[in-house]
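wait is this the right file?? whatever heres the structure
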């Protein structure tokens, strides 16, 4: 079977049908599992000239298509067309001449590439206007696909379980004399956490292992607040004693506790988007000898990555036994997120929050 989700024969149909079933019915799915590199080598792999091409990180766009309802509906129509008219011979433009292919071969190729741009190229070369029109009709929804993932793909029960556990921890801390401060902040632009990290995930976005939601680890929240506080200390806007009280030193434990930041998942909206960066001079960067100059004749090398969509709101929380310290640390955190941002590509505007 050729397609965008190819597993060993005994698992192939079940895995493909499972994902299509969830997507077509608007049911949640484990995004962390789909984007796990040990799984997606099958999920994004495909057959080419009867050889297995293993999925890789740059095929992440295929994984996003896999989770889109538009893709699932269109490809169902396409497979139906394959069953009914697959043996029709079609004339294809090939270089300066033409060749003949069966319609099922063309449909298999479209299923295999699972990409709007590549599909346009395939259809463009078809010389039979009737076939071209029929393919465009069946793929009409797919060709308008927006490469964003909706919140309905996240299991709300899992999310609520994660959130409830965090609230229980915070309630227990309050019983022990801690003061908990919270802030809900929205992204000014997109957010990328974990870009390029060496981990089992090759998504460039950090998903919670068990709950399959994008989140910002408490360590990252503490790190950006710490970095901003160091800047203020160097400018003389906070004292070293205040800094040590919050973050500690080699001899003293810090008095502030930082929690993971969770996105708010209410409603049905885009929460994850496929983003791209283009390396315009790949040969120049690859040449360690420095002999290759950058030039406009080089082909850009697009690198796809996942990001949290603009406008997504996150709930930040921290705790301390000192009420004034908790409030002061919350203000530091808010300023840090507004002025220096968090995560990767902050120099390009990613990771900033509106306060």
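ok assuming it is, sequence goes like this
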């Amino acid at each position: 079977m050729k397609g965008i989700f190819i597993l060993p024969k005994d698992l192939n149909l079940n895995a493909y049908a499972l994902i299509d079933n969830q997507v077509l019915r608007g049911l949640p799915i484990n995004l962390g599992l789909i984007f796990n590199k040990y799984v997606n080598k099958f999920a994004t792999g495909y057959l080419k000239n009867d050889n297995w091409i293993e999925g890789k990180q740059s095929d992440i766009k295929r994984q996003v298509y896999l989770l889109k309802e538009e893709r699932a509906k269109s490809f169902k129509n396409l497979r139906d067309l394959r069953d009914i008219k697959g043996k029709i011979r079609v004339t294809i433009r090939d270089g300066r001449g033409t060749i003949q292919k069966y319609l099922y071969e063309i449909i298999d190729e479209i299923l295999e590439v699972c990409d709007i741009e590549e599909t346009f190229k395939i259809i463009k070369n078809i010389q039979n206007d009737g076939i071209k029109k029929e393919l465009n009709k069946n793929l009409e929804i797919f060709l308008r696909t927006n490469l964003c993932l909706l919140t309905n793909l996240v299991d709300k029960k899992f999310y609520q379980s994660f959130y409830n556990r965090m609230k229980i921890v915070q309630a227990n801390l309050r019983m022990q004399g801690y003061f908990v401060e919270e802030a809900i902040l929205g992204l000014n632009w997109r957010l990328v956490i974990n870009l390029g990290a060496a981990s089992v995930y090759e998504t460039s976005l950090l998903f919670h292992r068990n709950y399959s939601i994008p989140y910002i680890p408490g360590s990252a929240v503490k790190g950006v607040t710490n970095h901003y506080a160091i800047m203020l200390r160097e400018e003389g806007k906070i004292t070293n004693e205040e800094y040590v009280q919050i973050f500690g030193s080699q001899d003293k434990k810090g008095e502030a506790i930082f929690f993971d930041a969770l996105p708010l998942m209410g409603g049905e909206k885009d929460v994850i988007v496929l983003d791209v960066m283009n390396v315009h001079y790949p040969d120049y960067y690859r040449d360690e000898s420095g002999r290759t100059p950058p030039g406009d004749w080089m082909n850009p090398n697009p690198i796809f990555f996942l990001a949290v969509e603009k406008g997504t709101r996150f709930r930040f929380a921290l705790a301390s036994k000192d009420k004034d310290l908790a409030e002061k640390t919350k203000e530091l955190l808010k300023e840090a997120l507004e002025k220096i941002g968090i995560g990767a590509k902050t120099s390009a505007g990613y990771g900033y929050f509106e306060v």
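Residues 156-175 form the longest helix (20 residues). so i think its the right one actually
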